Amino acid sequence: MTGRLAIEQKTSATHATLWRMPRVRSGTNDELILTFGRRPVNYIVMAKDEVREHLIDVGLKTVWAEGLNATGVKDLVEAAGVPKGSFYYYFPSKEAFTEAVVERYARDGAAQREELLADTSVPPLLRIRRAFEAYLPVYKAVGYTGGCLLGNLSLEAADHSEVVRARLRSAFAVWQASLRRVLAEAEERGELPDGLTADAAAAFLINAWEGALVRMKAERSGAPLRLFIDMAFKRVLAR
Q1: Under CATH, which number does the domain 48-91 receive?
Q2: Residue 13: exposure state from Cβ atoms within 10 A (0-12, 13-18, ≥19)
Q3: Distances in whole angstroms, Cα of residue 228 to Cα of each of 6, 141, 187
Q4: Reported pTM
């Protein structure tokens, strides 16, 4: 069921009146209004699976912008417009929620990378370079803030949660594998420097990029990202 549940609260409320507004003609949506008094608090009513995905959507944006430690369950449910009980229905703990957020971020990132690296008519090293360059205007648009959620949560949570650390490790491994596949093409074409394997090159690119993002946030500048691209593709990977 979809619709909107509006709740009006009153400090000493002991009774509630529930009524259903007329069904929307064009679909199956209902509008539910639960009245306790004068002050409205709006909740979004969705199907069960939609609520979980909506919480993850909101959580991803909030954690990316504010950081994990600064984000409480109360903040999340208010931003999502759902009751607090809905959070604990899907996630037994904040740790479990963080794991789901990392999983979503990693899945979306993998899809983006596959799209950026898919054009085999472009030489492999150029495809990888363009994939990194695609993020430069994105970070510029947000004032060189945010960074990579995998790196951010590695700093915030990996030391304190084995569950989250394992999920982060898996996400980095998937990322490395996607780069390794393209770098293997370069290796077969003789385009990698002697002695540098595709796997080592993939690991280096991720490690160096994550470091550049940390420096980007500290300086509020795209210079560390541009330096990474120049050093990686004009020096380290150049024959």
Answers
A1: 1.10.10.60
A2: exposed
A3: 50, 19, 21
A4: 0.80
